[in-house]
Amino acid sequence: MHFLSSLAVLATLATFTGARNAPVAPKLDLLSTLTLRLGASFDLGGAVPFGNTVDVIPVVGGTFNGSRLSGEVLNLGADYRLTDRAGIIRPDAHLSLRTHDGANVYLQLEGAVQPDGRGLIHIKFQTATDGSYSWLNIVKAVGVSTTQGTGSVPDVVVIEVWNVTPA
Question: Does any domain span residue 127?
């Protein structure tokens, strides 16, 4: 009897694991192109525990444009950018957006940017749960960033914001 119940368990497990499909890549939909204008930066004055330096870079404005999400970047944000010991730039930006129809959206960006300016950014949205943009509160977004300008801090950062959903 014990043998038969063990055999039944093995058959169930084989069916369960055999029914698993091959992994499917998630779907990416372009949500918006975010263009950030940056102001004059300052650093914390030397090495920090987790890296070489933290630069505080004001975000003084910008725009975002997409089929479902467009408007302006308000002059109410900053990037607290860590440069780690390997030279990798790790943004930690907090922004305020206003949509074309007046809704306010808080945006947090974190990621890793190579010294040449290319980066991959995780983006988190927060807005009113009862507003017309409440769908943003559950969006899982990634951004691909590039920079414009010269010097250690660019004048402009452009981020293509992609909504990630199951295929």
Answer: yes
Query: Taking the model in full, what pTM does it have?
Result: 0.82
68: CATH? 2.40.160.20
Number of domains in the chain: 1
Mean pLDDT for the stretch of residues 106-129 = 92
What is the DSSP-derived secondary structure letter of residue 10?
H
Q: Rounded distance, CA 85 to CA 76, Å?
A: 29
3-state helix, strand, coil in the chain (%, to 5): 15, 50, 35
Cα diameter, the chain: 77
| Cα angle value 107/111/117 (rounded, 5°) | 105
Instruction: Tell me which residue range forms the domain holding 60.
Output: 24-165
